[in-house]
Amino acid sequence: MRIKSPIKARPEPKGRIGNGGIAVHTDNMKPVLGKYALAEVPRYTSYPTAVQFSKDVGAADYRRWLSQMAPDEPLSLYVHIPFCQKMCWYCGCHTTIAHTYDRVGAYAKYLMAEMDLLAAALPDHHAGLAHVHFGGGSPTMLDDEDFTALCAKIRSIFGSLPNMELAVEIDPRTMSAHKAKALAKAGVTRASLGVQDFNLHVQEKINRIQPFAMVKQTVEWLRAKGIDAINFDLIYGLPGQRIEDVRRSTELAISLRPDRLAVFGYAHVPWFKKHQEMIRQEDLPGMEERYGEACEVGRVLEGAGYVAVGFDHYAHPEDDMAKAVSAGTLRRNFQGYTTDTAGILLGLGASSIGALGPGYVQNAPSLDQWRKAISAGQLPIVRGVVLQGEDAMRRAAIMQIMSTMKLDLDAHTHAFNAAPEALDDALEKLRVLAADGLINIQGKKITVTAQGRMFVRNIAACFDTHWQASAKRHSRAV
């Protein structure tokens, strides 16, 4: 899929940075950055967030929720593969290094067993899967035989809708023409490539040497086998990274014509991920530089014709994600923004999270604990959270404003049969952000401004009755 008639990006006047295609005076942004960019706020891939998960929710709750599923309810499935060949120092994922394939192959067998346990807990169900996502770690650590067998079993147990999307996250360093052929044969329809940054001096500081030619070759192998839907991940705020570096990386990424790009800010959490101690604090860009990098990615991508999706994604205008923005059907889940509209997400694998109507459940993050539960014939759930009180209403408000950048509070409370003043606590907090130019408020209608788009996590936090501003619980807003 080609970007049609890309708009040539015009150089910004000195002292200005493009913010999603909108020029913003950096001097005017300093007070806003100081107030909001350093705030540690959730990413809101769920609500309540994982911080509120507890051991009070377990396998018995999960079984009960599964038994309540409607037989025609479409499902989605997330499969976690927690292995990599080499540790990237920026990584915040649940993963470990596999020096031999024995551990990976054994893990695949346990995944098969977990599917059997899940199948036994499911009621009669005939809707099938709308979406399957293999994440990690590096799912391409699985050999072709195991990956194909897992995909076949998924279809046999859960069924599949006619247009089911089967997506897989790919480390280009693990790819070959043969593996691309195997992925296509297994039914993969979308591939998400971890690009991060194309500049060697940045790659050296994050322990991920991945030349542009390697990524280009991977894309060519995938497309040659009919896997045409390609996603890229880019990261700003990396050690040694400058605005000109993210500009170069973004322009190189565009040259390969990805359909979607996720643009993440690096979260430096060495107290949570010890390997991040390999990244020196002094090598990280400052707050203004980091904001400038994020803005530059948006300026270049929108200049090339991509559509801004939420606060950190971009999509080709003909891609389903861009169409979902226009249609108002864009959603968020644990993979970020998605076109998946299934009401139930099931998780497979260590640390994976499932989302059902009553709440969320999480598998044991520890590989040993996960394996022991499966060996004992138990679903490996170790914690979760039940939606209570206003949680469902506030979750919907957060997801809507993060996806559409607008929210009518009166219409929203009416839809949940709540009192008109039920969200007035959030409205009072939002007025402070309106004074800083991040949102417009007309009556009870909220609209995120172009300047506020990057701070929509701060905006969403106004609806969160669980969140408390505390250090070392969440990543910075920008």
Walk me through this protein's architecture.
α3 packs parallel to α4 and α4 (144-158) packs parallel to α5. The strands form six sheets. A nine-stranded mixed beta sheet has the order 11-12-10-9-8-7-6-3-15, with helices on both faces. A three-stranded antiparallel beta sheet has the order 16-17-18, with helices on one face. It has two domains: 50-348, tm_1862 like domain (pyruvate-formate lyase- activating enzyme, Alpha-Beta Horseshoe), CATH 3.80.30; 388-466, Arc Repressor Mutant, subunit A. It has 15 helices and 21 strands. α8 (243-255) links the parallel β9 (229-236) and β10 (260-265). It is α/β, with parallel strands linked by helices and 478 residues long.
Walk me through the topology.
Elements: E1 16-19, E2 22-25, H1 26-37, H2 59-67, E3 75-81, E4 83-84, E5 96-97, H3 101-121, E6 129-136, H4 144-158, E7 160-170, H5 177-185, E8 190-196, H6 200-206, H7 212-224, E9 229-236, H8 243-255, E10 260-265, H9 287-303, E11 307-309, E12 313-315, H10 320-327, E13 331-333, E14 336-338, E15 344-348, E16 353-356, E17 359-363, H11 367-375, E18 381-386, H12 391-404, E19 406-408, H13 409-415, H14 424-435, E20 439-442, E21 445-448, H15 456-461
Parallel strand pairs: 3-6, 3-15, 4-5, 6-7, 7-8, 8-9, 9-10
Antiparallel strand pairs: 1-2, 10-12, 11-12, 13-14, 16-17, 17-18, 19-21, 20-21
The quaternary structure here is: single chain
Radius of gyration: 22 Å
| CATH topology category name of the largest domain | pyruvate-formate lyase- activating enzyme
Specify the overall morphology: globular
Mean pLDDT: 90
Sequence stretches where pLDDT stays below 50 over 5 or more residues:
1-25
The CATH homologous superfamily of the largest domain is called tm_1862 like domain
- Extended strand count: 21
